[in-house]
Amino acid sequence: MFSSRFHWDFRPNRITQAIAAKRRAGARLLDLTQSNPTHAGLQYPPEILRAFEDERSLFYDPAPAGALVAREAVAAYYAARGCDVAPERILLTASTSEAYAYLFKLLTNPGDRVLVPRPSYPLFEFLANMESVEVSQYPLAYDGGWGIDVDAVAAAVTERTRAVVLVNPNNPTGSYVKRDELAGLVRLCAGQEMALISDEVFADFSLSSDAARVRTLAGVEDCLAFSMSGLSKVAGLPQMKLGWTVVSGPSDLRREAMEKLEWIADTYLSVSTPVQHAAPRLLAAGEAVQRQICERCRQNLAVARDTLAGSAANLLAVEGGWYITLQVPRIRSEEEWVLLLLEDENVLVQPGFFYDFESEAFLVLSLLTGSAVFREGIARVRRRV
């Protein structure tokens, strides 16, 4: 009766069951997986609520690409970061997840493929499957730092590959795309008539400096490219449901892509009027939230480095984003490590297999976690490891 898209196993896994049991027993868990900024103890400026006191929100005048006032605000966001993006190149969506869906509709036919990084956020397979698209992976290699092997990407291309997805910086490795990597990927995509899709939601959250890194693909000219971000991470406002996509590349391809994306968006018109009119003020007020997140992530990273120094847990190099990866001894599986920390230490971390790490054993922790909880939790991790 139901679509074959729903082929996943919805039963709770051992980790989910163990968490539920701990909470039923009233245990105080130190959750080092916090990903929701609205639950992270941040101070949100009152201007965020006042941003919705706009009479224009009472009128419905839909525009497929999004209200000009909101697109101009997004253009100003890029201008402040040294990137010239015209509002005509910006398409608004309710989220980056919706933007992926639009781009897969734009670029692929059922059965086509997109290339995604490994390890990375485990959402791609779900999003692609919902559009009847298949996912292939290309590896991120670690050698004191994470990098993209462009030759490995090229080797993964088939006649049905339509796009290469980048997460910049990657989640959870925190690695930015470098200029030489981007140059190779642009040549590859231009030669194979593929597009680049760049998920840049964590781009503002740098943990170190490096002149070789690329912050956004919004300036790409030689192949069709799409740069995505949104209020969820940029302003710590996932509940506001406003994302955007910047279309870049050769002018003829860019115009055609934008026309087709507007047609797709016009079919759904999912972005609410109030959040579009509030966008300029939300982006401005969100800068204070972003600063808090940056400061917390840097402080927690410093605590992690100090606490784990000389231990059996190897903190892998990280450049940006909200997460860190620990390589722990392979004396037990990742699942066993997570369950051990949960059962014996009341500490919750994520296993590397959630992010499709190719080997074991890796644990992923969130730097967004409240400072006191993070400090106590990472100390317990060290004690157990």
The total tally of domains equals: 2
Low-confidence stretches: none
Q: What would the CATH topology of the largest domain be?
A: Aspartate Aminotransferase, domain 2
Order of helices and strands: HEHHEHEHEEHEHEEHEHHEEHEEEH
**Oligomer category:** single chain
- How far apart the termini lie comes to 48 Å
What is the radius of gyration? Answer: 21 Å
Q: What is the name of the CATH architecture of the largest domain?
A: 3-Layer(aba) Sandwich
Helix content range: 25-40%
Description:
The chain is an alpha/beta fold and 385 residues long. It has 2 domains: 14-43 and 286-384, Aspartate Aminotransferase, domain 1 (Alpha-Beta Complex), CATH 3.90.1150.10; 47-284, Type I PLP-dependent aspartate aminotransferase-like (Major domain) (Aspartate Aminotransferase, domain 2, 3-Layer(aba) Sandwich). The protein is built from 12 helices and 14 strands. An 8-stranded mixed beta sheet has the order 2-9-8-7-6-3-4-5, sandwiched between helices. Strand 4 (134-142) and strand 5 (146-148) form a beta hairpin. The longest helix is centred in the last third of the chain and has 36 residues, at 273-308. The termini are far apart. 43% of the residues are buried. The mean pLDDT is 97.
